[in-house]
Structure formats: structure tokens, C-alpha cells
Write the C-alpha cells for this entry.
Amino acid sequence: MWFVIGTKQKTERVPNGRQVERRCSSCGEVAMFYERRAVSTFQLYFLDVVDYRSRIVMACGACGTLYGTDDLGAREPTPLQTFTGAAEQVGSALASGATRALDRLRSAVSEPANTRTTEREATDDPLADEDAALEARFKELERQGARVRIDGT
């Protein structure tokens, strides 16, 4: 079995964030730098699973290069710490999902079969009440002995 895992980083501009005009060391242009929030995300099969790091950065308006700021005053975690934290979050999410699935399975097994069917019909079919009334009417007609001919004669 193959597992496709990865990470991605997305940024979004901070509303009413700081703006500073500086020279970018990457492209050499004097440009406006904008405050942005960078979020690193752990992915499984190309789907976002968990955001494991968020930080404030300044982005060059000319080339888009991101520069870290010391707003948070925290040391950057090592890649191993980052992966371990993301793995713990993914594991706890999987465990809670598995627990919920097992609870649903236990409740479905413990309920009588006719209760499950009527609850499922009531929630899945918006016309379940009309179907039940129609079924009751057909049973009443059968009890009375009425027969309906379909061939038109």
C-alpha cells in the first residue's frame, strides 16, 4: 500500500497589516513589503489534513519572497519536531474518528432491525410519511377486498 504524504505552505495577507518599503535581498528591488500569515499544512493523498504551524512573515511586493519576523518571539521548531507534532495531531484525529465510527456501529448493532429501518427511512426519505399513509390505504383496500384492474377492462 502506498501513502502519499506531503506538506504545503500557503499565505494570506493580514487585514490592516503592516507595510514597509525596503530593498529585497532576493530580487534587489526597492519594494513594498506586506505583512502576511504563513500556514504550513500536512497533506495526505493531496488533501489538507492538519495545519501544524502558523507564523507572521513579511512578503516582498515585487518577487513574493517571504521573510520571517520575530513577532512571536518563539524559536522555529526543527523538522523532526514539526513532523512529530503533525503526526500526533493526525493520529489523534484518526483515533477520534475511529472511536466515533465504532460508537455508531455499536449503536446500530444494539438497536432492533425495525427501529433502524424506520429511522433511516424517516431521515433519508422526505416523503416517508406520505409513503406510510399510502401503504396504510392500500392495506385497508386489500382488507375490504377491493381489486384494481390495470389492463383497463
The CA atoms of residues 25 and 147 lie 90 Å apart. The longest helix spans residues 79-110. The helical segments are 79-110, 113-124, 128-144.
